[in-house]
UniProtKB/TrEMBL annotation:
Domain of life, per lineage: Bacteria
Record field: transmembrane: 34-55, 61-83, 115-133, 153-170
Signal peptide stretch: none
Organism: Companilactobacillus kimchii DSM 13961 = JCM 10707
Keywords: Membrane, Transmembrane, Transmembrane helix
Matching InterPro entries: DUF3278
Protein name, UniProt field: Integral membrane protein
């Protein structure tokens, strides 16, 4: 069971090194802080949306609903990324140190594989965001499956994937042998 937990932690948080007690306690503390931040965000976001709906006259509720759901999704992802990944990076948990050049090549290959598997998910998120902001009460499926919305989502997905790969490759350090 411990190997499964380590694998899930490694996959979800992107931890390249060994998961020891210090890393687990750091992840636990940051996860609790993230949960508190998500709860506060949910309360404030829902109060804000409720007040906006109460005091405004919304003519196209479907567009408003899709926009609010997409905005909520991206704000949640942003909060989770800020409270976990950026803070783990600042504490040095996500840095990857290797001892040999073949280890560095393997680490870079694993970074490529990680982001190539995340590319379809990123494309889907951006595709839904572009479509929900663009369909203006028209048929949602026609707008979703149009070539322009697919192209508008594919370009930033590929560009962001390349940027993230470059950033992660810069974190791989080759340790010098001291002998």
């Amino acid at each position: 069971m411990k190997k499964v937990n380590d694998r899930v932690l490694r996959w979800f948080f992107g931890i390249p090194g060994v998961i020891d007690e210090q890393v687990r306690s750091e992840i636990g503390r940051l996860s609790i802080e993230t949960l508190i931040a998500v709860f506060i965000f949910e309360v404030l976001f829902n109060i804000g949306v409720g007040i906006y709906i109460y005091f405004s006259t919304i003519k196209d509720f479907e567009s408003f609903f899709l926009f609010i759901m997409t905005l909520h999704l991206f704000l949640m992802i942003g909060i989770i990324v800020f409270f976990t990944s950026f803070r783990l990076q600042r504490r040095g948990v996500l840095n990857q140190e290797v001892t040999t050049k073949t280890g560095k090549r393997n680490a870079i290959k694993s970074i490529f594989n990680k982001y190539l598997t995340k590319l379809p998910m990123m494309f889907l998120f951006i595709w839904l965001l572009v479509t929900s902001l663009d369909f203006d009460g028209q048929n949602f499926m026609n707008t979703l499956l149009s070539w322009s919305s697919i192209r508008q989502a594919l370009q930033p997905s590929v560009a962001l994937t390349i940027i993230f790969i470059i950033i992660d490759i810069s974190k791989v350090r080759l340790l010098k042998d001291e002998s």
